[in-house]
């Protein structure tokens, strides 16, 4: 605000009444102008202060919202990282278990093949033994039949 203009009082010269009246009107006009200018500056100051206050409040509110949004984004980012880490750990466990399952499958396949091979060879040995026994038994029965005078081929 500009300072108010001060009017100096000077001793009055003897002039005519008309000049005094005109000078008095001029002084009043200058004083009125100064008061009006001061009033205008006061209003402008109050208006600017109100506008700045509302702008500060709006910016503070926006800043708090942005801080809250930033915190939410950081929390979301942390949660996403945790989720990705858990998924990676799960994937690693799944791969490990799949590998173990494949190994077990291969081991069981080997065991089954070995067992079947062993069973086949045991059956072959048993078959040979049965064939030998049956051959001996047939031979004995043939001999008995021939002792009784029967032909084994007729029976």
From TrEMBL:
Q: Does NAD count among this protein's keywords?
A: no
**Annotated segments matching region Disordered:** 1-21
InterPro entries, per database record:
DRC12-like (IPR033585)
Native source species: Amphiprion percula (Orange clownfish)
The cellular location(s) given in this protein's UniProt record come to: Cytoplasm, Cytoskeleton, Flagellum axoneme
Q: What does this protein do?
A: Component of the nexin-dynein regulatory complex (N-DRC), a key regulator of ciliary/flagellar motility which maintains the alignment and integrity of the distal axoneme and regulates microtubule sliding in motile axonemes.
Superkingdom, taxonomy of origin: Eukaryota
Q: Which UniProt keywords apply?
A: Cell projection, Cilium, Coiled coil, Cytoplasm, Cytoskeleton, Flagellum
Q: Which residues form a coiled coil?
A: 49-114
Name the record gives this protein: Dynein regulatory complex protein 12
Q: Assembly and partners? A: Component of the nexin-dynein regulatory complex (N-DRC).
Instruction: Please tell me where this protein is predominantly located.
Output: cytoplasm
Where are stretches of biased composition, namely Basic residues? 1-15
Q: Which family does it belong to?
A: Belongs to the DRC12 family.
């Amino acid at each position: 605000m500009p300072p108010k203009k001060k009017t100096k009082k000077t001793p009055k010269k003897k002039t005519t009444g008309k000049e005094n009246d005109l000078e008095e009107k001029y002084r009043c006009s200058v004083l009125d102008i100064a008061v009006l200018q001061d009033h205008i500056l006061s209003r402008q100051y109050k208006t600017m202060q109100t506008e700045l206050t509302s702008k500060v409040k709006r910016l503070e509110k926006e800043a708090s919202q942005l801080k809250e949004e930033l915190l939410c984004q950081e929390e979301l980012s942390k949660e996403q990282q945790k989720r990705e880490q858990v998924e990676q750990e799960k994937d690693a466990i799944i791969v490990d278990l799949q590998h173990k399952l494949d190994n077990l499958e291969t081991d069981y396949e080997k065991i089954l093949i070995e067992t079947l091979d062993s069973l086949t060879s045991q059956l072959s040995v048993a078959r040979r033994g049965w064939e030998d026994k049956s051959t001996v038994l047939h031979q004995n029965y043939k001999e008995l039949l021939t002792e009784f005078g029967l032909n084994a081929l007729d029976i």
